[in-house]
């Protein structure tokens, strides 16, 4: 089997538009940690189940210890926040959090999911963390979108009326 060049794969994968989330958790000391993720997926309605792919690091370690995480779907005004949690933030942000079901929540998120891990599957250098949703809510706001390796504002106009 031939292997695809990593840069070619990355370029092709960047053509799939995704929403942008920040995964939040509490470490053993009760400090908030987080990571930017665009691999968030809803899996099942019964029971409500989601997953994301976590790279190694502080947030993944915190989730492994507690078995819980929060998913914050970012609004279109939050590109700087996404960059911060991706480790590319230029300026120090004045971060504040709310709490939902005992998990840290970014106050202006479009949607929030409180999650309890039910399964971990190691895949390459990431772990797929499958979780049942224990609480969730949303507000009407436009999400941040990632496409072509850049942030974009808004979800655009609907393609079809239902």
UniProtKB/TrEMBL annotation:
Question: What does UniProt list as this organism's lineage?
Answer: Bacteria, Pseudomonadati, Pseudomonadota, Alphaproteobacteria, Hyphomicrobiales
Q: Does the keyword Oxidoreductase apply?
A: yes
One Pfam family from the record: Flavin_Reduct
Q: Which UniProt keywords apply?
A: Oxidoreductase
Q: Any idea what this protein is called?
A: Flavin reductase family protein
Ranges where the Flavin reductase like domain occurs: 13-153
S-adenosyl-L-methionine found in the keyword field:
no
Native species = Rhodopseudomonas palustris
Alphabetized GO MF terms: FMN binding; riboflavin reductase (NADPH) activity
